[in-house]
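Subject: design request, 309 residues
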C-alpha cells in the first residue's frame, strides 16, 4: 500500500469515528430546521462556525483534539439570510445545550459569523478566535451588493461555476508540501466538492447575503474588547487589499504565517491547535516568546518577527 493510500485510509477511519461519535442533532428555530453537533468535556465551551459550503463536521481537525479538554457546539448554518437569524438560531441551540459562557471561533465565512455572534453575545463571551477571515469593509460590501443583484438572476449551473471558481483560487497549492499535507489537501478538496454538489441556490445566496451584511456592518459595532486571537497568512488571496483585523482588534494576539495562502488551518493545523490551546488556557494573556519559530506574532502593540525555518 502506498503512503498516500495509507494516509487516506487513516483519515477515512478518523472521519467515520468522528461522524459516529458526534451524530447530528436537530432543532427548529422560527420554522427553520437547524442541525448541529455537540460534545467534549471541561469547563470551557467553544462555538465553532464553519466556512463556505461547509457543515457542522467541517472543523473536525480542531474539534476532535480539543474535545478532550473543552466542550463544543458546531452548527450547520441553514438557509437564513440575516445575521439576526443566525444569532437567534445559535442562541436557541446554546440554551438547549445548557451553554452560558463561551468562546466563539470561526474561519473564513465562519469568522465573519463569529464576529457577529460575539457582538450579540458580548455579555457572555469569554474569548474570540478568528482565523483566515476578514473585518467589515464598506467598499467591498458596496461592490458585493451590486454583484448580489446580478447573482440572484443567474441560472443555477452558471452560479455554481462562478462560485466554485471563486473558491477554487483559495484552494490553490502553495509552495513545498509534505506528502501528508498534499493528501490532506486532496481530501479537503474532495470533501468540498462533495458538499458543493449538495449545495442549493437558495442556501448559497442566503450565505452570500450573510457575508455581505457582515461586510457592510459598522466596524465599531463589533465586540472589540476582551481576549481575542487572530490567525492569518500574509499571502492569503482573500485578504488582498483589505484592512486587517489587527486594526479592528488592537488588543488581539495576532499570529501571521507565511506561504500557506488561505489554507493555513489545514496546512499548519498543529500550529493552529497550539495557538488555540494557549489562548484557551491564558485567555489572551500570551507572550510572543511562546510562538512557533517561523511566524510573526503581535501581542497588543508588540511585534516580533522570525524568518522562515
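Subject: RE: design request

Done. Sequence follows.
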Amino acid at each position: 500500500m502506498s503512503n498516500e493510500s495509507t494516509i487516506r485510509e487513516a483519515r477515512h477511519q478518523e472521519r467515520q469515528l468522528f461522524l459516529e461519535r458526534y451524530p447530528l442533532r436537530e432543532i427548529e428555530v422560527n420554522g427553520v430546521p437547524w442541525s448541529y453537533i455537540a460534545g467534549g468535556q471541561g469547563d470551557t465551551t467553544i462555538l465553532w462556525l464553519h466556512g463556505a459550503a461547509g457543515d457542522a463536521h467541517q472543523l473536525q481537525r480542531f474539534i476532535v483534539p480539543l474535545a478532550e479538554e473543552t466542550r463544543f457546539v458546531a452548527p450547520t448554518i441553514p438557509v437564513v439570510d440575516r445575521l439576526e437569524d443566525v444569532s437567534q438560531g445559535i442562541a436557541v441551540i446554546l440554551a438547549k445545550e445548557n451553554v452560558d459562557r463561551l468562546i466563539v471561533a470561526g474561519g473564513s465565512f465562519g469568522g465573519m459569523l463569529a464576529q457577529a455572534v460575539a457582538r450579540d453575545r458580548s455579555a457572555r463571551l469569554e474569548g474570540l478566535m478568528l482565523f483566515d477571515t476578514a473585518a467589515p469593509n464598506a467598499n467591498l460590501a458596496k461592490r458585493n451588493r451590486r454583484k448580489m443583484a446580478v447573482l440572484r438572476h443567474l441560472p443555477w449551473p452558471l452560479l455554481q461555476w462562478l462560485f466554485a471558481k471563486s473558491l477554487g483560487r483559495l484552494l490553490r497549492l502553495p509552495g513545498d508540501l509534505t506528502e501528508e499535507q498534499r493528501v490532506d489537501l486532496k481530501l479537503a478538496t474532495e470533501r468540498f466538492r462533495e458538499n458543493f454538489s449538495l449545495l442549493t441556490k437558495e442556501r448559497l445566496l442566503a450565505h452570500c447575503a450573510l457575508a455581505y451584511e457582515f461586510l457592510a456592518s459598522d466596524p465599531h459595532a463589533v465586540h472589540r474588547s476582551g481576549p481575542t486571537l487572530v490567525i492569518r497568512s500574509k499571502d492569503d488571496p482573500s485578504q488582498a487589499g483589505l484592512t486587517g483585523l489587527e486594526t479592528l482588534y488592537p488588543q488581539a494576539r495576532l499570529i501571521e504565517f507565511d506561504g500557506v495562502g488561505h489554507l493555513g488551518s489545514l496546512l499548519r493545523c498543529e500550529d493552529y491547535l497550539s495557538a488555540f490551546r494557549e489562548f484557551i488556557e491564558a485567555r489572551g494573556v500570551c507572550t510572543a516568546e511562546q510562538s512557533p519559530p517561523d511566524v510573526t506574532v503581535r501581542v497588543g502593540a508588540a511585534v516580533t518577527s522570525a524568518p522562515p525555518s
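The two ends are 32 Å apart (CA to CA).
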